[in-house]
Design a protein that fits this description.
- With 284 residues, this protein is α/β, with parallel strands linked by helices.
- The protein has two domains: 210 residues, 2-enoyl-CoA Hydratase, Chain A, domain 1 (Alpha-Beta Complex), CATH 3.90.226; 48 residues, Lyase 2-enoyl-coa Hydratase, Chain  A, domain 2.
- It starts with 14 loop residues before the first strand and ends in a 9-residue tail after the last helix.
- The strands form two sheets. It has a six-stranded mixed beta sheet, sandwiched between helices.
- One of its GO terms (molecular function) is delta(3,5)-delta(2,4)-dienoyl-CoA isomerase activity.
- Belongs to the enoyl-CoA hydratase/isomerase family.
- This is Dienoyl-CoA isomerase-like protein.
Length: 284
């Protein structure tokens, strides 16, 4: 794969942001010496990046990966988190300390959840070590592609807490096999890319990180060529349908598409289908 061009205006401390092709952003976690682990400054920057990409009309699809070959992310940077963290600050009583901790956890959840809230489809490329927070992030992504060497684990029980950033809420809805979900979450055992594919956690497995990343970039380019009204609307409606009942979701879809069918994209799509031409869609 050829070298990628930095995305203009997107300069960050812990992430590289590239523009591999028109309409596509490639976000790369850039802490390879720390196995791309997350400390508080990292997750705060992560949230800001995905919130910004969500509103950027020039971006239509996003790819997320980790720098280096060793890890997508090893999860939480435990050493950094233990130094000056709110987790270890004494409060005047349990209620007041808990209030501060709750706000801290909710902020963390919001930063990682920015991937799910991003209006653009996000394709995550999982490779090497993918532990703890890696599962939270992957659950927020729309499409998951793994390299064959990926080593997954929901590790939080091994540090004395239930996973709290989203895995326990999202993973059962993705996989559907609650016995398997409870097994990996309760035991914190490793599972392979092949097993992740077998249970439906990842959509496909490629032979290497390079192959997985190329597949993601190719797919993102394909998504970027389609109507942003249709692509972004489809993500919104799928996520809404996951979290709501059938009747409510159908009603929401009807309201949503009563606007979408009035777009120029719909007209272009119909005409191109009849004429067998490839349409070009405006920014959204």
């Amino acid at each position: 794969m050829s070298a990628q061009t930095p995305l203009s205006g997107y300069t960050y401390t812990y992430f590289n942001i590239y523009s591999p092709t028109d309409g596509v952003a490639h976000v790369e976690i850039n802490r390879p010496k720390k196995l791309n682990a997350f400390s508080e400054p990292v997750w705060l920057e992560f949230g800001r990046i995905f919130t910004r990409l969500s509103g950027d009309e020039n971006i239509r699809a996003v790819v997320l990966s980790g720098s280096g070959d060793r890890a997508f992310t090893a999860g939480l940077d435990v050493q950094a988190s233990s130094e000056g963290s709110q987790l270890f600050v004494e409060g005047p009583d349990a209620a007041r300390k808990a209030k501060g901790l709750r706000s801290h956890i909710e902020e963390f959840q919001g930063c990682i959840g920015a991937v799910e809230k991003c209006e653009k489809p996000v394709i995550v490329v999982l490779h090497g070590v993918a532990l703890g927070l890696a599962i939270d992030i992957a659950c927020c992504a729309d499409i998951r592609i793994a390299a064959s060497n990926t080593r997954f684990a929901v590790k939080e029980v091994d540090i004395g807490i239930p996973a709290d950033i989203g895995t326990l809420t999202r993973l059962p809805k993705i996989v559907g096999n609650h016995s398997w979900v409870k097994e990996v979450c309760l035991t914190a055992r490793d599972f392979s890319a092949a097993e992740a594919r077998e249970v439906g956690f990842v959509g496909s497995v490629r032979e290497s990180k390079a192959a997985a990343l190329q597949a993601a970039l190719d797919m993102a380019g394909q998504l970027a060529s389609k109507s942003p009204v249709a692509v972004q609307g489809t993500k919104e409606l799928l996520n809404h349908g996951r979290d709501h009942g059938t009747v409510e979701s159908l009603r929401y879809t009807a309201v949503w598409n009563s606007v979408a069918v009035q777009s120029e994209d719909f007209k272009k799509g119909i005409v191109s289908g009849l004429k067998k031409t490839k349409p070009t869609f405006a920014k959204l």
